[in-house]
Amino acid sequence: MTRGLRPLLFLALALLVTGTSAHAADNRAAARKQFERGTRLYQQARYEEAVSAFEEAYRLRPNGVVHYNLGQCHEKLGNLEKALESYRAYLRDVPQAEDRDTVERLIASLEARAEARRKPQVNIASEPSGAELRLDGTAVGATPWSGPVEAGTHQLELTHPGHAPLRRELEVRSGEPVQLQLALTPEMALTGEVKEQPRPRGRTWTWVAAGAAGVAAAGAVTLGLMARKDSRELVGSRHEQPEAQRLHDSAVSKSRTANVLYAVAGVAGAAGVTLFFVEGSF
């Protein structure tokens, strides 16, 4: 249902006012002028100016209908708290309002929207994506995931087939959105195990070199992902200086170690290729 501004019956209002002083008449005329100006501004989508006009009309000649129109303006502007104040004042000043039920439903809807807005927005992505996300033990979806979360400390858990579960605390501060990029560690890289491969007779050292290359490469990938995780956590969230320095040092150290392991993997791989042909000739 489309909601619009309420008309203000200044004639009825005038009859409720005792006395016919020139000052009272001037106030009524000025209030009517401001109310009509506010209505025109609202229709032109100039909501901030309409608020000023309606507030002046109410100051000159208080009337509960003005509160409803102020609520409409504040709602258009996205000022939910002020809109709620105005709608409540309307029901207080106009207790017999015919649309009371409608306005009460509107207030309930705005209260829900205002409550959701007070919860910080949390965005969580992972490598690989599609990991199941649990917050405080409750499944909320798969990554990438976004939603409002109550301020406070929460327990976060990510699980993905073939990867070790990732568990950590999630600190959410009121009014501060959270952006997280998390990296899951492959289970093979965690254990250091390499799947058994058929070993041809006479090529023992070839497979030893290949295994060493695989372990080194897996370790390099793992450390690279962990370094990227630290770096993104450093950039994506606010930290105290000691924590920021720790994340920076950790990312640099892991990145350097990963580079060393990549070099080891390259040397071991080259040795394996050479041994393949040398051992095969015996």
Description:
The chain has helices at 10-16, 22-43, 47-60, 64-77, 80-93, 100-118, 187-191, 204-236, 241-280, and strands at 121-127, 132-135, 138-142, 145-148, 152-159, 166-172, 178-183. The chain folds into 3 domains: 10-118, Tetratricopeptide repeat domain (Serine Threonine Protein Phosphatase 5, Tetratricopeptide repeat, Alpha Horseshoe), CATH 1.25.40.10; 119-184, Carboxypeptidase-like, regulatory domain (Immunoglobulin-like); 189-282. The strands form 2 sheets. A 4-stranded antiparallel sheet has the order 3-2-5-6, with no helix packed on it. A 3-stranded mixed sheet has the order 4-1-7. Mean pLDDT is 78; it is low at 9-20. The chain has 9 helices and 7 strands. It is rod-shaped and about 115 Å long. By secondary structure, the protein is of the alpha+beta class.
Question: Keyphrases for this structure?
Answer:
282 residues; alpha+beta; Serine Threonine Protein Phosphatase 5, Tetratricopeptide repeat; Immunoglobulin-like; 3 domains; 4-stranded antiparallel sheet; 3-stranded mixed sheet; 7 strands; 60% helix; rod-shaped
**Count of DSSP strands:** 7
Instruction: Give the uncertain stretches in residue-range form.
Output: 9-20
| Overall geometric form | rod-shaped
* Computed structural class: alpha+beta
CATH fold topology of the largest domain: Serine Threonine Protein Phosphatase 5, Tetratricopeptide repeat
Specify the helix fraction band.
Answer: 55-70%
Number of helices: 9
Radius of gyration, whole Å:
34 Å
Taking the alpha carbons of the first and last residues, their distance comes to: 88 Å
**Strand ordering within the main sheet:** 3-2-5-6
For the record, the count of structural domains works out to 3
CATH homologous superfamily title of the largest domain: Tetratricopeptide repeat domain
- List SSEs in N-to-C order: HHHHHHEEEEEEEHHH
Strand content: 5-15%
Largest sheet composition? 4 strands, antiparallel
Per CATH, the class of the largest domain reads Mainly Alpha
Shape-level CATH architecture of the largest domain? Alpha Horseshoe
Average pLDDT number: 78
